[in-house]
Amino acid sequence: MKKRNICMILIVVLIVTMMTGCSKKEEKKEEDYSIDYLVLVNKLNALPEDWEANLKTEHCVNSIGDDVEVEVNAYNAYLQMKEELEAEGVYVDLDSARRSVETQQQIMDEFSEKYGADYAMKVVAKPGYSEHHTGLALDLYLIVDGVDIIYNEDLVQYPEIWETIHEKLPKYGFILRYLEDKEHITGYAYEPWHIRYINDPDKAKQIMDKGITLEGYLGAVNETDPIIDLGSSELYSAEELKEMAVLIKCQFAAWKDCELHKISYAGDDSANEENLEWINSLSEGTKYEKVAGFLMDFHSPKESDSTLEKDHEYTDYQWWLGCDEEGSWEIVSFGY
Q1: 71 and 209 share a domain?
Q2: Which CATH number fits the domain that encloses residue 83?
Q3: Could you tell me whether strands 259-265 and 227-229 are parallel, antiparallel, or unpaired per DSSP bridges?
Q4: What pLDDT sits at residue 172?
Q5: Average pLDDT for residues 225-251, to the nearest whole number?
């Protein structure tokens, strides 16, 4: 055999060996890959410092041309769920998944400017404290009759489709993260599109079947179902009163180890000119046109660095909200 041919054979063997070695190394990397799929990131728990260094992700482009980054196993599970949904005539796509801290800050700024700080707090996480930093939180959007439905106010108009999607979640290791009536625990309003991957169908089924939050499942909180007494009003609709109660509950969720027992509307008598003048005196440039008062019963933690009395049952704790000319309600003041 000619030397040239021998050399060519050796080169080919070397290349194949190197490629095989890289493949084995990659397989080992796959086997060694491990993160805590039950990691809790919320208003009280920041993203672990070493998380991003250990995270492995995939990129995809959605139907509207946006690049979306997802944790690798969450993405594979999502694709399997999507395939089953499409077989039943339900079409979804990924609006967002992993976000950097910088991106989260940009979203917070945009929502605050457009909707107000309280509304932004209700629907957007503080940078560094967003579940989206994990790559395990996926925001879905719908494709209905070939049309992309991407805005929140439009997405909530399809409860039956969301119900179908939610039924599939546990099978693929997902849970619905922000449940209705659990805002005092999660810190966020109900989001039918926000799902969370926990990489364990059995645990996901337990959580979904019980209708509890991830916080409750992990024992991070004593998950209560507080009484919400909105009474009746001739000034405000039931939807407005519920919106105000949700704002209060979302802020309360950041009160570490406090346990909510009751929220009640203080009545139309609280919505008087004197109180309206008072909250306007507290505002920084905002002109409120309406005022509403709420009362709260809750228990403070046994140990606390806040101004709250330790291990104390608070009753009729006051919350005051104002509505600006654009119809947006905000929390203006709270306390005894």
Answers
A1: yes
A2: 3.30.1380.10
A3: parallel
A4: 98
A5: 96
* Last residue within a domain, chosen from 218, 248, 266: 218
DSSP state of 311: T
Residue finishing a domain among 175, 197, 218: 218
Q: What pLDDT is attached to residue 15?
A: 34
pLDDT value, residue 126: 86
Q: Are residues 198 and 290 in the same domain?
A: no
What does the pLDDT read at residue 31?
53
Rounded CA-CA distance 62/3 in Å is 53
Q: Is residue 11 part of a domain?
A: no
H-only helix segments in the chain: 3-32, 51-54, 72-87, 101-115, 117-123, 152-155, 159-168, 183-186, 201-210, 214-218, 238-252, 273-282
Same domain, 74 and 177: yes
Please write the tens of the pLDDT for every residue from 7-50: 333 333 333 333 333 233 333 344 568 899 999 999 999 999 99
In tens, the pLDDT along 285-307 reads 789 999 999 999 999 999 877 88
Residue 187 lies in a domain: yes
The tally of domains found in the chain comes to 2
- DSSP per residue, 117-162: HHHHHHHSPPTTS-GGGGT-EEEEEEEETTEEE-SHHHHTT-HHHH
Q: What is the dihedral of CA 105, 111, 116, 122, to 10 degrees?
A: -80
State the pLDDT at residue 100. Answer: 84
Tokens 């509307």 appear where? 265
Task: Let me know whether 165 and 68 are in one domain.
Answer: yes
The arithmetic mean of pLDDT across residues 56-71, rounded, is: 97
User: Which residue range(s) make up the domain with 268?
Assistant: 227-335
On whether both 264 and 122 belong to a single domain, the answer is no
94-106 exposure pattern, b = at least 16 Cβ within 10 A, e = fewer = bbbbbbeeeebbe
Q: Cα–Cα distance between 326 and 290 in angstroms, integer?
A: 11
pLDDT averaged over every residue in the chain: 89
